[in-house]
Amino acid sequence: MKDKIIILGEYQQDKISSITLECISAAKQLQGEAEIILLLMGEDRKKDACELQQYDVDQIVLVEHPLLSRFSNEPYAKALLSVWDQLNPAILLWGHTDIGKAISPYLSEKLDIPLYSNVESVEYNEKRLFLTRPVYSGKLIEKIEVNTPTFFLTIKPKKWKASQKKLERNCTIRSLKVKIDKSIPTLIGLEQKKQQTLNLEDAKIIVGAGRGIQNEEGFALINQLAKTIGGTVGVSRGAVELGVCDASMQLGQTGKTVAPDLYIACGISGAIQHLVGVTSAKTIIAINKDPHAPIFEVADYAIVGDLFEIIPALMKEWDNPTI
Ligand code: FAD
Predict the structure, then answer these.
(1) Which InterPro entries does the UniProt record give (predicted)?
(2) Atom 33, ligand 1: which residue's CA is nearest?
């Protein structure tokens, strides 16, 4: 029987998220003779499965259950344990996202299978498999040899290109039944927070706010700049600690990893824990009043000065260019 690589499909606002397409690209690198299976969990996923048939996977497996309609730790973990038992794959692969981070350690412990998390690259060398991942807040890159045929892998977002659609639809779709004990905690509902940002991981332009924004007024200025140039707002922990924004907007080691075309860091010092989440940006502009701020070491363009003077000037220039 062929080995299997299972990718857990992730959804964001009811759309398959880009990390799943990045997982397909990573799985192709690991594939060898194995079969790639995209696992879709939820309710009424058949339409999505038909659309996803154009991607480069061998099979789509649907696991539909009312308790899986939205991500929740316990039902998802139980369902994945059942899928593991039934399909007996070699590799279970998903993103190093909130979902991946939440359930992969639980499954790894429960099944006693090694977990390689936040992986940035995979490479076969004379049939030996090597992985790299950042350690010590990204100060070092660790290279590991995988010595077991069976393992879990979470991949760092934006390290693989999203897989592209093919013309033909030639993968099969099948359903798998799982039993989920009704006694486990059940998600009753989700309430949308007022301060809702666009999906940061997919944003092309991000304006970053740091402690240098000082207060609500500074945060409003950052939002205004983002609106003016068609960007999304991300923040450092310094800004979160000011209490003016939500931790879900945080970029960095304990926040999100992004790779926009443009990142404008405003009043952010450039601590390593922040930088690991943003240095995949194609272009970085930093605005900081301290000419020695570490952010300038990674910035493509440095603007030394007070953000409360620079940002209004930038917006004015954007609206009425003088050059
Ligand atoms: P500061 O370091 O205080 O910098 C503020 C900057 O604003 C300064 O450089 C200052 O010169 C500038 N400034 C002030 N006023 C102005 C002005 N008017 N105009 C222009 N510039 C001005 N941090 C994250 O961001 N993300 C993470 O995921 C994260 N995870 C962490 C995990 C761990 C385990 C630990 C220990 C820390 C983590 N941190 C994280 C915190 C990180 O170490 C820094 O403390 C944090 O990034 C600092 O935020 P900041 O740059 O906004 O603030």
Answers:
(1) DHS-like_NAD/FAD-binding_dom, ETF_a/b_N, ETF_a/FixB, ETF_alpha_N, ETF_asu_C, ETF_asu_C_CS, Rossmann-like_a/b/a_fold
(2) 273
- Here the tokens at position 98 are 């909130």
> Is beta strand 283-288 parallel, antiparallel or unpaired with respect to 301-304?
parallel
Q: Whole-model pTM? A: 0.73
**Is 294 close to ligand 1, i.e. is its CB under 6 Å away?**
no
For residue 114, the tally of other CB atoms under 10 A from its CB is 14
Whether 228 is in the pocket of ligand 1, judged by its Cβ within 6 Å, is: no
Residues 6+ apart with CB under 8 A from 176: 61, 62, 63, 83, 86, 87
The tokens for 158 are: 């934006």
- Region of 252 please: left (phi>0), alpha (psi -120 to 50) or beta: left
Q: From residue 198, how far is each of 132, 221, 226, 248 by CA, in Å?
A: 30, 18, 11, 11
* Ligand 1 mutation pick, 225, 263, 269, max ligand atoms within 8 A of CB: 269
| pLDDT reading at 186 higher than 80 | no
